[in-house]
Batch of 3 targets.
Target 1
Amino acid sequence: MSPTAFSLPPHLVQLGFDYVLSVEAGDAVAAARLAPEVERLSGLLPAIAELVVFPVTALSDDTEPCADSIALDEVGVLYLMAVRDWATATPASAAPGIARTIAHFVGQILADEPKDVVRALEVLRHEYVERARVAVDSGVTLRG
């Protein structure tokens, strides 16, 4: 579970993933349509990055930590810190780059093949929108 609270409502989870998908798919029209709201919410894409990256890189409670798992955890923390700093330092121009880094991470780590990035992002979008809906319905704060 993520160390920071993730309490985005479903429509913002949808917005964040839709923006990442439009950038990855090269859909400039959709990206331009979504960009003003994404840029206004400077913490949105870092939150989406955390949802995608943290479960893959964080130390697991199920296994004993070892040098590799500790290193992976630290790489994930550094990645997320860099994304947050990027979004804070240059919110107007950071969104497309952050979206590309999220898509790249998905392509390299989570997709069955690098060509399946869009499909993997769609699966993640569906999963996290549903988790956000369940959290809202049950009154529980969703954590990544």
Target 2
Amino acid sequence: MKTALYRALSTNNDFTSLALRIPAGIIFVAHGAQKLFGSFGGYGLEGTGQWMASIGLEPGYLMAAGAGGAEFLGGIALLIGLLTRPAALVLAITMLVAIFAVHLPNGLFMSNGGYEFGLALLSISVALVFSGGGAFSIDRQITAHSRISGLKSTETLSAQ
């Protein structure tokens, strides 16, 4: 169990992930807040749920809660760098659903309701699944401390 947790949290100390985590986290939190709370001009759970049901994502309320929760909580996780890999995986799946269920028929460009923004967020999320939280992440602090207190190091894990 410790090994699986360590793998989920492991990361390096570079700034690349930080440069991806912060803007993506802000964007995801804002979009999740629109869906969940009606913030920033959003429609809240009720309105978003009705819209999702109207495009065939049923049950709409549950789908809105799932997407909004993934974006809001996943965005917070990215911002602080806690469970970055699992959060990014959930966000990547959320973006795949958004792209295929909503935006793909409209083509690439955002100006036509296309998938370019979703694709950019999907790419960032996938990159974070592979890289982890990086510098200034809680994941980094946990794994750095864990190496000292006896959990397996990255070198040991990669040799297995």
Target 3
Amino acid sequence: MGKEMEGVQAAGDYTPEKLFHELDNEPDLKLDNDQLERIASIVNAYKGNIKSHLIEQQEKKTSWADRLADNIAKFGGSWAFILLFSLFLVIWMTINFMSFAFDKPPFILLNLILSCISAFQAPVILMSQNRQASKDKQEAILDFAINYRAEQENMELKAMLDRLDQRLERIEQQGR
């Protein structure tokens, strides 16, 4: 790339218009694979920064109660919970089938405990799902915005390539 082009990139005010201006003034300048990879990495870094900023914003807005609900929902929907709870039920029933039982069959106290756990766990899981749906909606909007901008940039690049192609044809015709 030319020295002007490197200076523009280093200054941080690199725009598609300046790229087109540089290409328009230097018809023998073309992008090689390294430069295209660098452009792709810049786009990926830009997208990553937006996503990390969005996640950071969501974490700042999240209260301790929301984080607690997320952790409870995460644990309540795991195999660890199922295995631990199954173990708890087996131990409870085993103890209460013995002679020193404190909750004889039909396990009324166990039913009360299970009902209370269900009564608290269901709304907590729903709160967590609502928050996740809100996050998903924000990410979908962000993805749409990024895709829309990428489509605009692609259309701009196509227009630039068409102009360069026309200019190249004119130069070839003048050379004949």
